[in-house]
Amino acid sequence: MTTTKDPGGKGASILDAPEVDALHLDERPDGPGAAVMMAAGIGIFVLGLFTLLSEASIPIHDWLESLEFGRGVVPLAGKTINGTIGFFAAWIILGMAWRTKELDLRRWFWIALALGVVGAVMMFPPVFQAFATE
User: Fold this and answer.
1) Chain centre to alpha carbon of residue 132
2) In 10 A of CB 32, how many CB atoms?
3) What confidence tens digit (pLDDT) does each residue in 44-69 have?
């Protein structure tokens, strides 16, 4: 498990604190936590990408529209279905690959956050409408 230095800067680990030690917690790998963070970032990125592609390509827009199954939400259902598939696929793949790994959670958090921000920017109307086909 990745340990964090105490705020006082004395070099002691938070896991060395008597309050935490008294809990008798098992150390667990950081990989599963990093996997779900990355999966969330990938899911948001996929959702943003399909939002942008829906405006930029008529065939992709029509395909996403066909995924609404008569519910009246037009291509929104296709975008969210693909974003959800992206999240779960990434979670399963990364979760299996990283289940026993010790990873730098801070690094993977920032990568996942960057993917999420890029995905959110692609869902911003002035951005995806700039790619609209007439």
Assistant:
1) 26
2) 18
3) 999 999 999 999 988 998 888 888 77
Question: Which of 102, 100, 65 minimizes the C-alpha distance to 81?
Answer: 65
CA angle 9, 12, 14 (to 5 degrees): 105
For tokens 């801070």, what's the residue? Answer: 106
Mean pLDDT, to the nearest integer, of 98-103?
Answer: 92
37 backbone φψ class: left, alpha, beta (φ>0; ψ -120 to 50): alpha
At 75, list the tokens: 């291509």
CA distance 68 to 86: 18
Type of residue found at 115: L
Contacts of 124 (CB under 8 A, 6+ apart): none
User: What is the predicted pLDDT for the residue at 2?
Assistant: 47
Interatomic CA distance for residues 74 and 77, integer angstroms: 7
Sign of the CA dihedral with 10 first, then 12, 13, and 15 last = negative
Does this model's pTM top 0.90? My answer is: no
